[in-house]
Design brief:
heterodimer, A: 608 residues, alpha/beta, 6-stranded mixed beta sheet, 20 helices, 23 strands, globular, B: 349 residues, 8-stranded mixed beta sheet, 32% helix
């Protein structure tokens, strides 16, 4: 049967199944292949905190969404064009994300009476015409997988677990993707067990062949490569990008990288990634708790390392006293907070932006710390590097905020030239003549980094208030006020050393939408859509949150309305209102999910 | 990535002066209460330091919070006064980053065993090469007199007017339970012994834990007098010496004998027992070390002081460094260009 080949600009697919069905792996393979064929893309893994929640349950559903296209792609997609559902629970949980008329590919073998009951279906939705408004393709994925492996000696469990490759093969066929990248990956991944290589390859090819031969798929799609800037690209997640940005900073600063951390979702992958690259003289320390994570990093920084601690949510709370110590010691330290839904343990695997006020203000005493935030998964590289630059130049802890969406989301990244990365040039004090541990660089106000092992610079530092210049313990009222202001002035001064804020869109107008962090793609998509409709709306995305860019105040005055959009109950807006004393609107959702561009568009429509 | 390495190399040929104890005294005024046991500990540490032959600039004293934790200010070395309970964690990071430094931690029974208890047990099990001296005065001094995790059951303090209902920690037993590779106890009012134990700790490669009975003359005066005062100490203290029988008493007329697993006091003067019946101390005997550590919880037994246990184990920071070197040997020095471009990439022309 001749199949129709249809061209599409962009597509959003969601793979959904039980936590143990391998949906994350399937999604990531589809992502790598899609990146390799030159599409722009953005992904959203969405999985429960439980590792293997009971099979078939609604709360055990694991999903992976990918939005790819031949045009610029900035979000993982508001709604899906295709839903691959391995069982009834996956269908039920994800159906609301599917567009009317969207494609459902359902594994009929997963829709047995037990699973239907667990998902709360009275009758089988694949058979009761309740899915009429969608294009339903019911495929016996499990049985077809079993058939493909009928003449092998693999256990039924192994056979059943490779069914995700059948689904992947079908989707590769449907969207005209090559099998080779995944074939290569399978060979490498399972190289120790040739029978698994054989089995998975066979199933992947069977899925692909099924698409080709079956009569249920009449149309096949093609998504042409995107017109990306010339260069060499790779696919990268936010956590990888943070790790690599830190490595790059270590290389460029000539300092050994030390990571003191405690495993926590969704930050642990940074630890995993750095642990893999010890040949960069990286030392990773999996501490006994979050507090030891930061305090060991402070100890390492005191010894002259580029020191980092990574965490999320509750871990941030536990490290707070350590932040204060680092402020008082005035030593370089990078704190990466991969924000997740809170408060308390909250939503470990979901995204949120609700730690901003904590990052900027959440310490005892006047304890200013620079705060910066990454805008996209690949921007995590740039901002991790920036965190190191500020920390080393100003002898200060720096908080880098990313979030669960950025951490696990992937996008194509144009690999930078190593030679184009700026040098970071820290120096250690070595001259005992006139050495004072709390003397100040005139320009940066930073103090010297005098590390143990330097003859003649023996000195004592600690968390008690210190005398200006000598660093000796000092409780005098005037000195305390002087030092509090000195520490504040040092951080405020960083405003002279960060890029000015830049508006995307018109320099003045009816509405300016301000965002920060991982909402960049959604806000950009929404604002661009409205601009195409001729609306006077612009977008400003903040990456430096403390201190703020110097020109922000004048920019704000050029718009009639200001809308601050954040995934919290209004935190940046509080900072901006109090600093600039201007009325501002705010748009806030806290669903544990990234913004949908469409929601922001509606909000813009309400205002304009 | 060799800025620190350069600094270390450039000072490699620095020859340590012939120091005296005075060279280790910083320019800061000592702010402990007059009569505090901490003065003796400071003096003995300063006396031992010159013997070690380590340049001052390679010595770091790290502490947490409390009276004991002011210690680094008074040593003319590098000093780091940290936050409450975290000294061992700070020192662990420092030691991993800088295995070339000699790191000492000064802590107290509150700092090290209460708020810092978690870090304490983990530093012991990891065997990071640092010396941890714990000033045990069985009271909170700096916060003015609350009971501590080593205060005896029923102790009346400001925060326990009816007596504590807390059972105390036994620091040596805790350290042994946490697999510390060197465990010792000494006394502030026995300068010679204190020096000898500090010396032994300094020589040890690995986490060396030293509990020092330290008198807080303001809030818990006399807590250890039975073990430190001339009139009583001979009958109440048994000095541990490797390879020697456990004899004590002014006339050396008593000893410790094992009845099953229980240590008991026997007389050497009534003809019933001789030194041959006594426990012969063996620092390398794991089981014995637990029995000795337990003795302080059993009434009517003399208190053992000296080195309870010493064993050689892999050093944490050395193993970490080894992994780095192995990775370099296997994959070559890290190459950023290669890292960014490894795996699947594609080029847009």
């Amino acid at each position: 049967m001749a199949k129709v080949l249809e061209n599409l600009d962009e597509v959003t697919i969601r793979f959904a199944g039980d936590s143990g069905d391998g949906m994350q792996l399937t999604g990531m393979q589809f992502t790598s292949t899609t990146a390799l064929v030159g599409n722009d893309l953005s992904t959203l893994p969405d999985y429960p905190a439980e590792i293997r929640a009971p099979a078939g349950t609604l709360f055990g559903v694991s999903g992976f969404q990918i939005h790819f296209g031949s045009t610029e792609i900035n979000t993982p997609g508001d709604i899906c064009d295709v839903l691959v559902a391995m069982n009834p629970a996956a269908l039920k949980v994800n159906l609301r994300a599917l567009s009317d008329g969207g494609i459902i590919i359902a594994n009929t073998d997963g829709f047995d009476s037990k699973n239907l009951k667990l998902a709360g279906y009275q009758s089988n939705p694949l058979e009761d015409s309740s899915l009429e408004k969608y294009r339903l393709h019911a495929v016996s994925i499990t049985k077809l997988t079993e058939n493909a492996l009928a003449d092998t000696n693999l256990s039924p469990k192994v056979v059943e677990r490779s069914k995700n490759f059948f689904a992947l093969g079908m989707m590769y066929w449907m969207y005209s993707r090559p099998l080779e990248p995944t074939l290569r990956w399978i060979e490498d991944k399972f190289k120790k067990s040739p029978e698994l290589v054989e089995a998975n390859i066979r199933v992947l090819k069977a899925g692909h062949a099924y698409g080709e031969t079956t009569e249920i798929f009449a149309v096949r799609y093609e998504v042409k490569p995107a017109h990306l800037q010339k260069g060499t690209y790779r696919s990268i997640t936010g956590n990888e990008a943070v790790a690599w940005g830190l490595i790059a900073a270590s290389v460029k600063s000539n300092l050994d990288l030390f990571l003191g951390t405690y495993p926590i979702t969704p930050a642990s992958d940074i630890l995993h990634e750095l642990s893999k690259h010890k040949n960069f003289r990286i030392k990773t320390f999996q501490a006994e708790d979050e507090i030891a994570g930061i305090t060991s990093a402070i100890g390492a920084s005191y010894g002259g390392a580029l020191a980092v601690t990574t965490t999320s949510g509750p871990g941030m709370a536990l490290k707070t006293e350590g932040f204060g110590l680092a402020v008082m010691l005035e030593i370089p330290l990078i704190i990466v907070n991969v924000q997740r839904g809170g408060p308390s343990t909250g939503l470990p695997t979901k995204t949120e932006q609700a730690d901003l006020l904590q990052a900027v203000w959440g310490r005892n005493g006047e304890a200013p710390i620079p705060v910066i935030a990454a805008a996209t998964p690949s921007d995590c590289f740039t901002m991790a590097f920036e965190a190191a630059r500020i920390a080393l130049k100003y002898m200060t802890p720096v908080i880098l905020l990313t979030d669960g969406y950025l951490a696990n989301g992937a996008e194509p990244w144009m690999i930078p030239q190593v030679s184009s990365l700026p040098n970071i040039a820290p120096t250690f004090a070595t001259n005992p003549e006139g050495f004072l541990p709390y003397s100040r660089d005139e320009k940066t106000l930073s103090r010297p980094w005098a590390i143990p092992g330097t003859p003649g610079l023996e000195h004592r530092i600690g968390g008690l208030e210190k005398q200006h210049e000598t660093g000796n313990i000092n409780y005098e009222p005037e000195n305390h006020e002087f030092m509090v202001k000195m520490r504040q002035n040092k951080i405020d001064g960083i405003a002279d050393d960060i890029p000015l804020a830049q508006v995307e869109g018109d320099e003045k107008g009816e509405l300016l939408v301000i965002g920060w962090g991982g909402t960049y793609g959604a806000i950009r998509t929404a604002v661009e859509a409205k601009r195409r409709e001729g609306k006077s709306v612009s977008h400003l995305h903040l990456k430096h949150l403390n201190p703020l860019p110097k020109n922000l105040g004048e920019i704000l005055l050029k718009y009639k309305n200001i809308l601050v959009a954040e995934i919290n109950l209004g935190q940046l807006v509080k900072i901006l209102r109090s600093k600039y004393l201007l009325p501002m609107l705010s748009y806030n959702r806290v669903l544990g999910l990234p913004f949908k561009a469409n929601d922001i568009e509606q909000k813009i429509d309400e205002i304009l | 990535m060799h800025l620190v390495e350069e600094l270390i190399q450039s000072n490699k040929n620095f020859t340590a002066e012939k120091y005296t104890a005075k060279d280790f005294s910083s320019d800061q005024d000592v702010r402990w209460c007059p009569g505090c046991g901490d003065y003796s500990i400071l003096a003995q540490v300063q006396r031992v330091m010159p013997e070690l032959g380590i340049p001052k600039h390679n010595l770091v004293f790290v502490s947490g919070i409390g009276c004991s934790s002011r210690f680094p200010y008074y040593m003319d070395t590098y000093g780091f006064h940290g936050i409450h309970g975290r000294a061992t964690a700070i020192a662990t990071g420092l030691k991993i980053a800088r295995p070339d430094l000699t790191v000492w931690v000064a802590t107290g029974d509150g700092d090290g065993l209460s708020i810092g208890g978690n870090h304490f047990i983990h530093v012991c099990r990891r065997n990071v090469n640092m010396k941890v001296i714990l000033f045990n005065n069985q009271i909170y001094g700096l916060t003015k007199g609350q009971y501590s995790p080593t205060s005896e059951f029923g102790k009346v303090t400001k925060s326990s007017p009816q007596g504590t209902v807390d059972q105390p920690f036994n620091p040596t037993l805790l350290a042994l339970g946490a697999e510390a590779s060197f465990v010792a106890r000494t006394l502030d009012r026995d300068p010679k012994h204190l020096q000898s134990v500090i010396r032994r700790a300094a020589e040890h490669q690995g986490t060396a834990f030293v509990e020092i009975y330290q008198n807080c003359n303001v809030f818990n005066d006399g807590a250890f007098f039975p073990f430190t005062e001339k009139e009583t100490k001979d009958e109440n203290v048994v000095y541990l010496e490797h390879g020697k029988p456990m004899v004590f008493g002014k006339q050396k007329d008593k000893g410790i004998k094992l009845e099953g697993f229980t240590p008991t006091v026997v007389s050497l003067s009534d003809g019933k027992y001789s030194v041959n019946d006594l426990i012969v101390h063996n620092e390398n005997d794991t089981m014995l070390s637990f029995i000795l550590a337990r003795m302080s919880s059993i009434p009517n037994l003399p208190r053992p002081v000296g080195v309870f246990y010493k064993v050689q184990k892999p050093l944490y920071e050395v193993e970490i460094e080894r992994q780095v070197q192995t990775a370099i040997q296997k994959n070559g020095e890290g190459d950023l260009e290669k890292l960014l471009n490894h795996g699947e990439t594609w080029t847009i022309q």
